[in-house]
Amino acid sequence: MFPLFLVYVIEYTINQGIGPTLVYPVPDPSTHPFWSLIIKSVRDYYPLWQLVYQTFVFFSRSSISLGLPALPTNLLGLPALVQSFVFITLSTESAKGIFPDDVGVTIFLIFCLIAVEGFCGGLAYVNVFYRIGQEDHPDESDSEYEIERKKQEREFKIGSIGVGDSLGIMLASLLAMPTEVGLCKAQVARGKDLCRTL
């Protein structure tokens, strides 16, 4: 439950607190023809980040169904670790502007990081539930009582995970509010006020 809780705290803090501050000037069609087709105003960045995130969550949640192997149990915390790197990188970019001044390169780098964030989030989700589904199946030799007990334990574990991810999302929402305000203030302090225009 803890790896999934941590994944939800990190990814929803990124989505709700950092994502809205990842705004840049609108790409010029002469220098960035592809990005200028997608981004027509400063307000287009956040929906783009969310589209990228949700697309990669979908792909990674479908990974086991598509025949990719499940993560080993001892690696269930790996997506949260990778998301921590994404969190630190994106928050540093938002606050200090560590990416190149070329808006096209910056958009591409953020696109890639948010794709990794979404992929890790979906991967954690699908693998935790997959592991629970694979645990402790009833045997033919089990009594009716044992079969029912194992079924109820599995349902309890699934319910507990639901509580964990809900608490993670709630905590992320509480963290995201001051995060967004703080990052916007940091941007304004370094002379970038696009976050205030939204």
How would you summarize what this structure contains?
With 198 residues, the protein is mainly α. It is built from six helices and no strands. Helices cover 69% and strands 0% of the residues.
Explain how this protein is built.
With 198 residues, this protein is mainly alpha-helical. Helix content is 69%, strand content 0%. It is built from six helices and no strands. The protein has helices at residues 2-18, 33-38, 45-61, 78-96, 103-134, 144-189. Helix 4 packs antiparallel against helix 5. It starts with a helix and ends in a 9-residue tail after the last helix. The mean pLDDT is 92.
Could you tell me the radius of gyration in angstroms? 20 Å
Portion in beta strands: under 5%
Largest sheet: none
Number of helices: 6
* Count of DSSP strands: 0
Query: What is the global morphology?
Result: elongated
Distance between the termini: 37 Å
Task: Give the uncertain stretches in residue-range form.
Answer: none
Report the average pLDDT across residues: 92
> Would you tell me the structural class of the helices and strands?
mainly alpha
H/E series: HHHHHH
Q: Estimate percent helicity.
A: 55-70%
Fold blueprint:
Elements: H1 2-18, H2 33-38, H3 45-61, H4 78-96, H5 103-134, H6 144-189
Helix pairs in contact: 1-4, 1-5, 1-6, 3-5, 4-5, 4-6
